[in-house]
Structures are given as structure tokens and as C-alpha cells.
Write a structure and sequence with these properties.
By secondary structure, this protein is of the alpha/beta class. It folds into three domains: 303 residues, Rossmann fold; 119 residues, Domain 2, N(10)-formyltetrahydrofolate synthetase, CATH 3.30.1510.10; 83 residues, Roll (Formyltetrahydrofolate synthetase, domain 3), CATH 3.10.410.10. Helices cover 36% and strands 18% of the residues. The protein is built from 19 helices and 24 strands. It is globular, with a radius of gyration of 23 Å. The two termini are 23 Å apart.
């Protein structure tokens, strides 16, 4: 069963935009005040967007916290499962049930908006608004992150050109450049051509902004001071003896922090139903850790009974990374986990056979059940779903002893998620014995083995020669006790994007290990995953335009 997102979603895209345009937005100042924010707590950016002030951040992050609910999903298909739509719908459903709830989601990146995945503002009657702004440049956070990242690259180049006092080893890979666009031609490039004044010829490359360590740092920092410290720890190069050369060594962290000072302040917008929503940060989950910022989540916790956040892609990526990397930084364990699936996705995994494809859902349930946190399965209902298909999934889930709810966030907003909201609230009230799947102080190889076997359902890990060399380098410098962030395909539980459903008998091939010391983890690059995506033959950009009234069309 093959899915073409653009072909399948064109009618839904049109409906999505129609619904977004029909919404009557309230001034952001009214939204903020109704959520308990004072006039000095936020700075409006136009009529419908705002940023929290640093004063508000300090107050809210010190307030008694609410509960965190993590939303994740089954292995994604090109059509999407509606994880963000469910996140917004669940938030609205909790509010309709009389509870204070705020969503904390990521900012969309331009690469997916113009590529295959599309936007990330939710859908239908469960969106965050203004949708077009959020899906494009929004409040300028991504350009600020790109500028800080590229400043470090420029300062490293300048240091070498002007004498190389730090003895940078020019034979080793350097800090790359970044841009927020899918462009395969920039993965590996040659720079420094044109003579001595332009540096020296060498290979270089770009990563997409959501894969930049600077993005991860923004999302894991607990304050501006912590942001500056983390930026200073970024490893930009090594010297001729193999010693790390950091942004602090290059005296770059102060200027990088200045570029990111405002980007570090969480953004606030509104849901379709007029509730406050945080949208901040945007690390990819198939490359980075895939979660909204620590600051946004902690600020929301100071305002609400429930904060609904999400981990990008499926539970093997975003949820695993949220639970091992983001949770310690937030300082609060999740009270419940919502696992989103659709009939269409499970049929995709079963090559048209829903019964077979439910194995993918069951594999993700098995993974999440190991953390000791209550799990609620949410079936994101589509108009064409049959009652027989929904019953088949319900019976299989309940046979495993799990809670399940059928939700309609796209078509009915919060009203279509009230049952899900009731079950999530009840699950959050139950005792939780949260435990991670590996010891933070274990060697990297042991952490990778735990992830491959306990999360992916594989048989282990194969470290290729380059990864083994890097592993020794990390161990020699005491960096092998950091958490691991696996970069792999989102299309499979394995590292092979063609292996659908619930594959078994495989080992994860790790081809390289990259230290992200500022972010506080080591990136394990598995399979053929690319840090700079490319556009397909019919990208979403082909459907985007501006009408005669200046309104953007075609974004979904």
C-alpha cells in the first residue's frame, strides 16, 4: 500500500485552510490575560503573536507545576497520523472538561513545509493560529539560530586564516554551515576557492537548521545564562593533538547568545478555540531530540493543570528522546503518554491488511509500557474509517490491557477529544513509576544496545569503523557518559526505511558518532540518514502560492 501525501491530502489541505480562515482570532493580549499573564509578562509581536518576557519566565518556571502529558505516535507514513492535531485537540478537550490545559509544540521548519511533511500547526478544528505565520518565518527564531550557527563557522574560518593560534587540525571535519531549506546539493561541498584571501580549498557542508546543535541547545537551555554556557561548550573543531576546540575557545559564545537572546523567549499564540498555546523551538526527531523547548514547557507548567507536548515522529524517536534527554532538563516526569494511530497508517504497515498492521501499534505499546507511565492509545478518526476497522483496533489494544479512545480532533476540535481527555486525565491521576531504559552513566555502546533492543525491537548494534574510532575519541575525553541521540530513518523501527510494520532480526548500523557537548548528548548516525534533506519530485512547495489579496495559499 503506497501513500502519496500530496495526492491524498489535497482535499484535506483545502479544508484545513478553509477552517483556519474561518476562525475569528482574538488579540493575543486578551488570550494571554485570560490564561493568567500580566501585561509585563509578554511582548506582542503584531496582533496575534507574542513572546514571554524574561521576567515572566523566571516567575512561571518557579511556580508549582502542573502535569505533563507526552503525545507520540506509531511509525509515520507520508500521509501523517495527526499527532500535532491530536495534541491541540486533546488540549482543547481538557479545557472543555473544565481543566486548565496548554499545549507546548514545536515551530515548523521551512524544509518540511516546502518538502513532503508539510506544516506543523495541527489541522482542521485543532490548529494553532495564525497558521500561515507559524508555518513560515513566525517570530524569527529560526533565522536567529541559523545566524548564531553560521557565526561560529565564520569565526572558526577567520581564526585559521589569521594565524591559527589554536592549532586547528585542518585535515579534520569542521563545524558545518546551516540553512532552513531542503537542499541536497549542499550536503557535501567544496569551499575556499579563488585564492589565498578566500581561505584554502576543502570539503565542507550544510545541515538543516532543525538538525543544528544550536537548535538543540535552544530547546534544552533552562535560562539565558544556561544558553550561553551551553553555546560555549560547542565543539567546533579539534587541534592537531585531537583536543576539542570549543566556541568558548574562539570567544564566540557571547555574540552567539546575543543573536539568540530573543529566540530563547517562548512564543505564545492561540488555539482554534481561543486557548493559549506555546510554539517554540523545532529540532527534528529523526536527527536531533525532537521536542519543544524546556523553557516553553516549564513556563506552561506554571500556568496550567496539564501541559500537552509532543515528541516528533514515532515513539522510537521523539518519545524515546523526550524521555531520556528532555525530561531531565525539564525536571518533571510525564504523568501519561498518548500514542496516536490511524486506520490508514496501520493498513499501510500491513500492506493493506489492518490486522497485520496493528503489529506496529503493538510494538510501540510494548516500548512505551517499559517506562512505568500510563499509556492511552488514541485513534485519530478519519471520515472513511469503518466501524469494523475501529473495533478491530480497539479489541487488539484492550486485549493488551491498554486504554483506548477514538478521537476526532480534525473534524470536531475539543468536542471530538473529550473522551480522550477524560481517559488521559484519569491516567494522569494513577501512580507512575517512571524509569528510563538505560543508565545515564553506562558506556555509549551499552546505551545504543538498550535502545536497539528495548525500543526498536532489534537484536543489537553494529558500530562501523568510523564510529569505533569516534567512540575511542569520546571515551578518552570523558564524553562517553552523555545520553545518546540516535539519528535514523523515521519510516521504520529499524534503520532501513523500507522495513515497515514491526521488523525483527535486525541490527542498527551506526556509521558515526558526533559529540553535541553543548546540547548534552552524542548523536549516533545510523543507516543512511541525511543531516540535510532534499526535495522530492513534487514537493509541497509546488502547491503554495499567494492570492490577489496577499494571502498565502496551499500550506497544510
Amino acid at each position: 500500500m503506497t501513500l502519496d501525501r500530496c495526492a491524498i491530502n489535497l482535499p484535506r489541505m483545502s479544508k484545513n485552510l478553509e477552517i483556519a480562515r474561518s476562525a475569528v482570532l482574538k488579540p493575543i493580549s486578551e488570550i494571554a490575560r485570560s490564561a493568567g499573564l500580566g501585561e509585563d509578562d509578554f511582548e506582542p509581536l503584531g496582533r496575534y503573536k507574542a513572546k514571554l518576557t524574561l521576567t515572566a519566565l523566571k516567575r512561571l518556571t518557579a511556580a508549582p507545576p502542573g502535569k505533563v502529558v507526552l503525545v507520540t505516535a506509531v511509525t509515520p507514513t507520508p500521509a501523517g497520523e495527526g499527532k500535532t492535531t491530536t495534541t491541540i485537540g486533546l488540549t482543547q478537550g481538557l479545557v472543555k472538561n473544565g481543566l486548565r490545559a496548554i499545549s507546548a509544540t514545536r515551530e515548523p521548519a521551512l524544509g518540511p513545509v516546502f518538502g513532503i511533511k508539510g506544516g506543523a500547526a495541527g489541522g482542521g478544528y485543532s490548529q494553532v493560529l495564525p497558521m500561515e505565520d507559524i508555518n513560515l518565518f513566525f517570530t524569527g527564531d529560526f533565522p536567529a539560530i541559523a545566524a548564531a550557527h553560521n557565526l561560529l563557522a565564520a569565526m572558526l574560518d577567520a581564526h585559521v586564516h589569521n594565524g591559527n593560534a589554536l592549532r586547528v587540525d585542518t585535515r579534520e571535519p569542521w563545524w558545518p554551515r546551516t540553512m532552513d531549506m531542503n537542499d541536497r546539493a549542499l550536503r557535501e561541498i567544496v569551499v575556499g576557492l579563488g585564492g589565498k584571501s578566500n581561505g584554502f580549498p576543502r570539503t565542507d557542508g550544510f545541515v538543516i537548521v532543525p538538525a543544528s546543535e544550536i537548535m538543540a541547545i535552544l530547546c534544552l537551555a533552562k535560562s539565558v545564562a544556561d544558553l550561553r554556557d551551553r553555546l560555549g561548550r560547542v565543539v567546533a573543531a579539534v587541534d592537531v593533538d585531537g583536543k576539542p576546540i570549543t566556541a568558548a575557545d574562539l570567544k564566540a559564545q557571547g555574540a552567539m547568545t546575543a543573536l539568540m537572546r530573543d529566540a530563547a523567549r517562548p512564543n505564545i499564540v492561540q488555539t482554534m478555540e481561543g486557548g493559549l498555546a506555546f510554539v517554540h523551538g523545532g529540532p527534528f526527531a529523526n536527527i536531533a531530540h525532537g521536542c519543544s523547548s524546556v523553557l516553553a514547557t516549564r513556563a506552561a507548567l506554571g500556568l496550567a493543570d496539564f501541559v500537552i507536548t509532543e515528541g516528533g515522529f514515532a515513539s522510537d524517536l521523539g518519545a524515546e528522546k523526550y524521555l531520556h534527554i528532555a525530561t531531565p532538563a525539564i525536571g518533571q516526569d510525564p504523568s501519561a503518554i498518548v500514542l496516536v494511530a490511524t486506520v490508514r497508517a496501520l493498513k499501510h504497515h500491513g500492506d493493506g491488511d489492518l490486522g497485520a498492521g496493528v503489529a506496529n501499534l503493538e510494538r510501540h505499546m510494548l516500548h512505551l509500557g517499559q517506562y512505568g507511565v500510563p499509556v492511552v492509545v488514541s485513534i485519530n478518526r478519519f471520515g472513511g474509517d469503518s466501524e469494523a476497522d475501529l473495533k478491530l483496533i480497539t479489541d487488539r489494544v484492550t486485549a493488551k490491557g491498554a486504554e483506548i479512545a477514538i478521537a476526532d480532533p480534525f473534524g470536531s476540535g475539543g468536542e471530538g477529544c473529550r473522551e480522550l481527555a477524560r481517559k488521559v486525565a484519569a491516567a494522569s491521576a494513577r501512580p507512575s513509576t517512571f524509569a528510563r531504559l538505560y543508565d545515564i552513566d553506562a558506556p555509549i555502546a551499552d546505551k545504543l544496545h538498550a535502545i536497539a533492543t528495548k525500543v526498536y525491537g532489534g537484536d543489537g548494534v553494529i558500530l562501523e569503523p568510523k564510529a569505533l574510532k569516534r567512540l575511542k575519541w569520546l571515551a578518552d575525553r570523558g564524553l562517553d557518559r552523555l545520553p545518546v541521540c540516535v539519528a535514523k530513518t523515521q519510516s521504520s523501527l529499524s534503520d532501513d526505511p523500507k522495513a515497515k510494520n514491526a521488523p525483527s532480526g535486525f541490527k542498527i548500523r551506526v556509521r558515526d558518532l558526533k559529540p553535541s557537548v553543548g546540547a548534552g548528548f552524542v548523536v549516533a548516525i545510523a543507516g543512511e540518514i541525511m543531516l540535510m534533506p532534499g526535495l522530492g519530485a513534487t514537493p509541497a512547495a509546488a502547491h503554495i502560492d499567494v492570492d490577489d489579496e496577499g494571502r498565502v495559499t496551499g500550506i497544510y
